[in-house]
Amino acid sequence: MNACMYVVLKQWKHSLQEKIRRPQFWIGVLVVAAYFALYIYQEISHTGTTQVIDNASSVYRGSVTMVFLVVAFVGFGLGLNRGSSFFRSADINHMFVAPIRSERILFYGILKKCGISVLITLILLMQLTNLRFYFGLGIEEMLILMGAWFLLSICLSILSLAVYSITAVSPVFRKIVLIALYAVSGLIILGVVLSLWRSGTPFSDIFAFFNDPRIHAIPLGGWAAGFLCCAMDHQVKLALVYAGLLLIFPLIGIIAVLKNRSGYYEDVLTSIGHGYGNYLYQNEASVSDVRHKVTRKKSHLMGRSRGEIVLMQRQMTEQKRSFLVLFDRGSLGMLAVAVLTGSVLRSLMIRGMYPFIMQIIALAVLCYTMIFTIPMGKFVDELRKPFIFLIPGKPLKKLFFASLPSVLKAFIEGLICLVVVSLFAKLHPAYVLCGSMFYASSAMLFYAVYMASIRTLGLTNSRQSHMILAFAILSCVFTFELSLGANIGSRLYAISDDLFLLDFLILAVFNMVVSLFFFVSSRSILDSRD
Amino acid sequence: MLRVKGLTKKFGKKVANENINLSLDAGEIGILLGPNGAGKSTAIKCILGLLRYEGEVKIGGFPANSSQAKKLVGYVPEFPSLYDMLTVREHFEFISRAYHLDPEKTRKYAAELVDRFRLTEVVDTLCKDLSKGLQQKVSIICALLPRPKLLLLDEPMLGLDPHAIKELRLMVTELSDAGVAVLISTHMISTVEGIWGKAYIMRKGHVISCHRKEEMVGMWAESLERIFFAETEAYDSPWRYTSDMPITGLPETKARVSVSKPKTTKKSKKKRKKK
Fold this sequence. Notes:
Order of helices and strands of chain B: EEEHEEHEHHHEHEEEHHH
Shape of chain A: globular
Low-confidence stretches of chain A: 268-302
Helix content of chain A: over 70%
Number of domains of chain A: 2
Low-confidence stretches of chain B: 236-242, 245-265
Radius of gyration of chain A: 26 Å
CATH superfamily of chain B: P-loop containing nucleotide triphosphate hydrolases
Helix content of chain B: 25-40%
Mean pLDDT of chain A: 75
Oligomer: heterodimer
């Protein structure tokens, strides 16, 4: 066994041994086992009475194309931004220095990534029953689906290799590809919006758009969908063409690696967009470059305040320096979601949907998506640094101020997104303000709940574990909030249509009160550093 | 064993190393000294072939990034970076496989080193559970296992206990006696006093002077620290060390004499014109 394989297998072995000792692993195993049990039960008890949904083929193909495009977009984006994240400092200091060929080191990285693809495939396997009962798929169609998925996931894994190898030599190329990626996704969103702009059933329009054969021209996601559709229609030659196109990427990757000799540590950093020089000089610049201190003095946001508030000001200064005060990639994603939601709501509006339902739908979609885009990592980083523990002050205040910049960002993000939604669906202008308040308070609630999960599980636990517990707590809070909101909302709506908007303000206050409760209960995380 | 000619490393417009020339013969112990940001670690990473560079670096006659050169080099990084989910013993096994070493001989040698660095109790512990000092010791053993001909140590004493520092000093001397060239980059001058053979003093990406111990006389021969401070604290003149400059020792009377032709800058030209 070669050295790279040895490291991979030994690490997997020890990780598994570590996980087995933790209770949350067994909870996860129980959930998956329950899911499989349900799957088997469904299979056994199926009497054949389940009705296949209308236009099953169109809905199935449209949704699979949509999923493939999203997966490819995310995979490609990750490949570009963190293409070589599979190398850690241990790899660099041991493997890059050892007489191991760079191609072998790269394949070692891919092997690690393939493990994640296997997990995703397992999730797909769990959906097979539903696909069979509700979409009327036979074994042949399901095999085609698995084949297309397999091809796509392998391509995405090897894509990282290609991106790493090509962009290592030319960062300009990386930028060009990134712009092209955003342009293609922008065009797809535009296409969806335009198809929704037409009157008719909103969702069937979306499926019609994704069933357009021209979509199959889009690299990766489109090709995988093309392979699936052509194979299902028994167009074997065309299906093979799409499969061949999908296999081009791995070939490009391998050729690029062989040509570039990308065995430099520096290339790893270049390909993820971090200059080693900047990293090297950042400390020196801040310590020794006295001349710049005078000019920088004015550009920070530290203000004259003292005490716990500096935690917020420090983060704001950092965000300002990296131009992320208002917008980051997550915000860009939120804007795209807002445009899509607005388009769907517009179609619903044309069909005579009540405004208050549209208002609820818009906020529900945006808040749910926001949970995935909120920068929790920054808060966790704060906990990993000693300052938050050492600064004298009340723990509650420190936690509050450490999370406040993200809440403020969420408020501005909410304003922009709800303006877009309101313009599309012609909603009341006051909705923008009330909705933004609710949106920002939801961000604060999520922060507070996440802190509670850190308090319960400890900082050393994995991010996934924290997320799962946070989701569980949030589900309980939202269930109660939903009934509370419906109760108050119905009374306000009975008085006047516009008064319903007050419901969002009341719920925002509710969120803040609940957040305060969680902040108080998790303040002990600052008692000692984990 | 190591020949570096005109090594220049730029990060965009920033020059990290400029025209570095250094050489080490078999059995020689070289020290890279310099304040923070002098470019010592960057130079070492270039020598290792981790960074792209301009100039020529040859290890045992082979280009730095070649497989043959890598077989000859052992490297202890600035910060110990080990695989969290591997035990100490598995790290040695990994090195043995990566360098295609004889398993039995490597095991014996590893046991010997483990004993010398007092790691016997933790050989089956996962590296994530080790303290920083212990991790540094593992890192040093990993570098020594392939029995390199050139050993590059980047701040090796950081986090080590006094016993380990003493052991490492002894080991470096033994390796030198066995014909291994050793290049140590450090701030902790006291830890390399007495063992160094050649000292390169760096500042702002340049090697400003080079001294051989055997050529030093009087008090300068005894204290590397004295030389370092004389070189770096009094350093405000445009004098630079260049490749064509002879390596000299410092006499007792003057603070510094290792002088070559001045580097002409725009400012100095203007000053001369004014005069």
